[in-house]
Hints:
By secondary structure, this protein is an alpha/beta fold. The protein is about 35% helix and about 20% strand. The strands form 4 sheets. It has a 7-stranded mixed beta sheet with strand order 5-4-13-14-15-12-16. Strand 8 and strand 9 form a beta hairpin. The mean pLDDT is about 90.
Amino acid sequence: MPGSPLHVIIIGAGTGGLCLAQGLKRAGVSVAVYERDRTRRDGLQGYRVGIDADGKRALRANLSPELYDTFLTTCARRPVYGNQMTHEKKFLFSAGPEVLKPEDQPSEDDADESVSRMTLRQVLLTGLEDVVHFDKRFTHYEQAADGRVTAFFADGDSATGDLLVGAEGANSPVRQQYLPHAKLVDTGLIGITGKTPLTDETRALLPKEVMEGVTMVHGPKGFMCILHVMRFKWDEDGKPKEGIGSTDAEALRAWPGMLYDNSRDYIMWGFAASEKWLAKDVTQMRGARIQQLVKEKTASWHPDFRRIFSLGDPDSSFPLVIRTSEPIDPWKPSSVTLIGDAIHTMTPGRGVGANTALRDARLLTRKLVAASGGELSLLDAVGQYETTMTSYAWDAVIKSRAQMDGHSVMHKGDLIGNLARTGMRTAMRTMNHLPPVKRKIALAESSFRGAGREDED
């Protein structure tokens, strides 16, 4: 029997919320998105996000084939190396395609992609112009006796629907009202992000494996820096580069999101350190001031790394307090639910935050489409989603935190900290000389990021 028409309200036009909206609209389920940013250009910087097999699976399911192809066209060149280096620019570990056997190579569907966050947002906004409402700051919601829920906004407007989805990130007001006991905890780490334009000068500062991979640099006192080079299929004027396929060129010319995108070839870098080694007012710093702090803290680093920091665009640099959710006990499903960072904020330690949000969006879309068709009640659909979501999300939260904990021994400045860091480097160098071990590590990471995963959702 057909189900009752559903109307879904999504708070937040981020990665997970927009992917959910795309899937629901494509399936014919009524949906509206409310975003606090004033325009589609606001809010996000153009930093890199890796899209793994889980993320691609979700995008492929929720987007139209044409829009999914546009997503692929707007991705940067794929990283093929995973590197670990010292702050003196010496390799500790590097694994590329040569460590994998032919049968290990990921399929096109499972191969990792890299895209700028702003670019991904522009892709996900494409075709949703009639359902996304900007300049709407959510304040609170009310649930009626009949189960319907009304969202209220700071400008006095309100919206009523059958389900309210909080998708507005780590500081989610929806979560704060719905699950006030679901807290975020500081990891003790502060991140500082930056973008350095890719030019002939900056290109010459990096070896081939770093140019074509994702690299973690390890320094004294547990200081670390991730580097990733983003090279796109369009040039500084937004025109397709020579040598790309005609299909890609046609997609770029036809994509309306290109009008709003700001991504040009660049080196993305993210410096992180325990808060005890940084200035007390680091979270108030921006631009040239915070870039200067990075240069001061990396005085002993290789000149090439410091040159990359020096040439960074000051407007691109800002601090980030790295926080994480803590798993909570199951809750009773209702006409309110949460996806992405709104429920499972995680550190960037394993690089799966955005992909988990996309996985949420795909799963919730499927459950809500089933409810719309009368196969499930709305509460059963939400309950099944939340049961499955928390099973994989809490696992990712725990494993991501293990990679980034500013209170760990790695961030101590005493003899114990030095010994721990020396031991880590020795282990990496040893593994780097053992091809079977490198292959095992590469396969384990690919599996964690969803490659070959059965469709258990």
